[in-house]
Design a protein that fits this description.
Elements: H1 11-23, H2 26-36, H3 39-43, E1 51-52, E2 66-74, E3 81-89, H4 99-116, E4 123-130, E5 162-165, H5 171-176, H6 183-191, H7 196-201, H8 203-212, H9 216-234, H10 238-246, H11 250-310, H12 315-322, H13 326-335
Parallel strand pairs: 3-4, 4-5
Antiparallel strand pairs: 1-2, 2-3
Helix pairs in contact: 1-9, 6-8, 8-9, 8-11, 9-11, 11-12, 12-13
Length: 336
Amino acid sequence: MKKRQRKPAGPKREHDALFRGAYSTKKVALAHLRSFLPPDQSASLVLEEIYLQSDSYVSGQLKSYFSDVVWQCPLRNSERKVKISFLFEHKSSPPDIPIEGQLAPYVANIWARERSNKEPLSIVVPIVVYHGSRPWPNDSIAEFFPGTPANLHGYFLNIDYVLTDLSSIPESLIKANEMLGALRSLFLAFKYAFDPIHLKENFSDILIFVATSRGPFFDSMLTEMLLTYIQKRLDMDTREMENLIESLPETPRKIALSTYDRILAKGREEGLQKGLEEGLQKGLEEGLQKGLEEGLQKAREEIAVNLLLHTDMSDEQIAQLAQLPLERVMELRQEA
């Protein structure tokens, strides 16, 4: 039997949903900052007091490049705040223009919003998370402008950013780094997002790292996001996904099965709710249409009755003017 074809969801939305869901959690944000922010910069920030910002500063053309999750952090021994922006690169290959060209309008958006709100300007720390299949180039911005005299290099944009290039981090290092905590699961899922064979091979480790991290509520939430993401990336139906979960060791299998059951139940509930809403909308539309038709019919009959009572027009003439069947006009004449 030929396997049915399923239309895949937009990959950008799949990546974006997992990224925003995970990095909106303090546990993930802190793990990333403590692992990748330079130590001298970490020492200048009170990382334990970061708090999530609801705003997004990605607009216009920038939406095709990345999405953002923004945390605010106090500077140590200062009243000034720092905005730490986790920027998830959507492309499967490095940008074809200098990353500074994307970061400059992004930072400008933040400052324009702060000026509009009469807030002091923030220092912006961009953290770019890249999971493409090709390594991020080490070229400096000058490499994009070959032949430019050194005395003009000062006009190049110069914006520092912290890059996490998952394509260049070996799988073995991700798995061995216990300081990453649940980030190991995220990194493996994103690293092999375009490689279904390796994604499937690492499925067990992805779920084990979630199961062994602390915080039951968060683990359950992250497990749900990861299972949803992996199922879409592997393009599996429910039976195939359940079989994959059954292959896990006992502890992560129990967690994954209960979480997946919850995903299915939520899907059924959302499907039912959507069906009810669509049914209600259809009922309202049909009721409105029926009401209009009944009102129009009544108006036509009233016109016909008035013509019957006050003119000597024939039934055929009245039927034509009132846009009614001749039989109905004859019935109205008998009733009038």
